[in-house]
Amino acid sequence: MDENIKSLFKRYQEGTARAEERKLVETWFESHYGQKGRALSRNEEASVFEDLDARIAAMLAADQPVQPEARKLNYRWMQIAAMFLALLGSGLFFRNKFAKKVLPAETFTEIRSVNGVKKEVTLKDGTTVFLNSGSSVFVSSRFGDKTREVKLSGEAFFDVHHDVRKPFIIHSGKLQTTVLGTSFDIKAYPEDEHVRVSVSTGKVKVESRSSDEPALYAKALTHNQALVYDKLNDSHLVTSVNVDSISAWRTNHLNFDNASYQEIARTLSRWYNLDVTLNTKIHDPKRYTLSFFNERPDKVLNVLSALTGTTYTMNGRKVIINPKNQY
Prior knowledge:
This protein is of the alpha+beta class.
């Protein structure tokens, strides 16, 4: 319809438009551009040009011959028509430029690593994702269009392919982590009290996305730095870490750093695909730093029992940890 609009403006400017065409142009301009000089948004521009299209189509459908008529020239509208004709002719103003594109609904594809299993996947941009046990990454259907966005539940190590034009964004609960090309570990299990972002290489930005106004938590985390977010207190801190130790789970190293007994029990459940239950009478305020490599679950539980003064029973996948001398 751009050619029809252009042709109509040209006939109006030359004085060869018939009466109903003149009325159409002047009514349309008065309606959409005579509003005290108010500028229209791009969406409004698309709407009014759709409207003019419809009117021209209706006029063409009437199949009336075009007969030039003598008339008193309206120089105000002639000047405006000339301006639009110039814009259309130079390609600076086209409806399609401003028309709002209808995008398909955004969907997410889940890549999951069940309890007791670790998984390595490569995304379509070349980014490698290592998923720890009991973790999922959800990849947006719009991944790679303008950004590369995923959601994470659990723990994963990302080795992001560098692309300065398309930031890689990970949503993990309240936190949003943005990178261009780097490697880092995010631990964000829903049942844990903390979310941790630890950087191996490059720089990482971490923000809060729980409100309309994002809060910047860390502008540029670098090698061996971590941001730890406390869900209960809605607070965060940046600290130094050994990221090689943190991400050693990829090579079957089970490391605990200043971990509570509850954290250890949850990790053992995911790591070995066990149903671990702590007796409610256990109230251990101490925190533990431990390391295991390719150990069987009973070996790990024996070490924990010796350190904490607890006992355990194991029946298939079901483990119950009790205070000492209670079964």
